[in-house]
Structures are given as C-alpha cells and as structure tokens.
Amino acid sequence: MNKYFENLQNEELIEFFLTDLNTLKEITAYVYPNHLYDDHSEIDAHIMRCQQILQSYIFSELSEFNDEITVDEIDVLAAEKAREIFKLCNKEIEALFETGVGKVVYLGESK
User: Which of 10, 15, 42, 57 would be 27's cystine partner, CB 3.0–4.6 Å?
Assistant: First the structure.
C-alpha cells in the first residue's frame, strides 16, 4: 500500500463516490420533436462530474504531503486512485444506464 493512502481507505472513497453518483434521480431534457434523445450523454456527464469530485477530494486529502511530493505528483496519485475507485464501482455505474433516469419533454408538447 502506498504510504500516502494509509488514512484514505478504498471503502471510504467508494462510499464518497457512490453518495454523489446516486444523487442523480431524474434528467429532464427539453428537445425538439424530431430530435432523438439519448440520456446516456447526460448520465456520462454526471458520472464524470462525480469522478472529478472524488479526484478533488483525494487531492485535498493528499495535500498534507506537499512537503514530501510535488503538486503534480499529488495530482497523478489522486487521478490514479480515482480511476481505481471508479473501476470498483462499475456495477453501480452500469445500473444507472440500465434503469435510466431520463424524462423527455418535447418542445411544443403540452405538459
């Protein structure tokens, strides 16, 4: 185990990531009637935001080591750890795509 992650356990990071991931309950898209809408792009954007939030959290936790390693090295470590956690949450991520969270409102339609 990398000494920089001794106080930052995978279980804690998974819980942190899933808390944000599971906040997406519904996407409402307003689109033109002849436009085919796919909510996967919105889900992808949500997942990327959650991964960035996780990476920022890890970065801030590792910043206490800035006297031992450079900011660039901290950034690399944070990105690698975020990708590791992301892979461990693959089942939960796939569930978002399977269940879908989209609601489409076509412009010109009465509500």
Answer: 42
